[in-house]
């Protein structure tokens, strides 16, 4: 115990100075003290939902996340797999990666469900889950119809093979 006291006294840092840092303030400012590159690297590992939640944590995080378009690009490219035309058109129009993602994210989720056949067995518009529907243009509905017709043809081919 005395050895520790001697080391502290010999180090030139008094106990008062060591205890002067408020632990709560230190915790709140930890992220602020990181270099911007490290902060952005941490944010880059987040999925879309976590990135949005992190941006609501504090003004500082919101500013960093909102301004850095590179954080949104990979998520936008993932949505592009479903909404290629929409994403490409938005980028050509000068929208940022973040804005492009915001404009197309929900549509891509609904479109993917349609294209994957989630609603193939629904016989009436009343049975469609309204809360997750999203307005889509005629071209998108054309893609969905083509996928449904292809699915029907494949289904008929399977039935014909069984008979």
From TrEMBL:
The keyword Cytoplasm applies. InterPro entries: F-box-like_dom_sf, F-box_dom. Keywords: Cytoplasm, Ubl conjugation pathway. Pfam families: F-box-like. GO terms for biological process: protein ubiquitination; SCF-dependent proteasomal ubiquitin-dependent protein catabolic process. GO terms for cellular component: cytoplasm; SCF ubiquitin ligase complex. It is found in: Cytoplasm. Pathway: Protein modification; protein ubiquitination. Residues 1-24 are annotated as: Disordered. Residues 1-19 have a biased composition (Polar residues). It comes from the Eukaryota. Residues 28-75 form the F-box domain. The keyword Cytoplasm applies. SMART domains: FBOX. Part of the SCF (SKP1-CUL1-F-box) E3 ubiquitin-protein ligase complex SCF(FBXO9) composed of CUL1, SKP1, RBX1 and FBXO9. Interacts with TTI1 and TELO2; when TTI1 and TELO2 are phosphorylated by CK2. Substrate recognition component of a SCF (SKP1-CUL1-F-box protein) E3 ubiquitin-protein ligase complex which mediates the ubiquitination and subsequent proteasomal degradation of target proteins and plays a role in several biological processes such as cell cycle, cell proliferation, or maintenance of chromosome stability. Ubiquitinates mTORC1-bound TTI1 and TELO2 when they are phosphorylated by CK2 following growth factor deprivation, leading to their degradation. In contrast, does not mediate ubiquitination of TTI1 and TELO2 when they are part of the mTORC2 complex. This is F-box only protein. It comes from Phyllostomus discolor (pale spear-nosed bat).
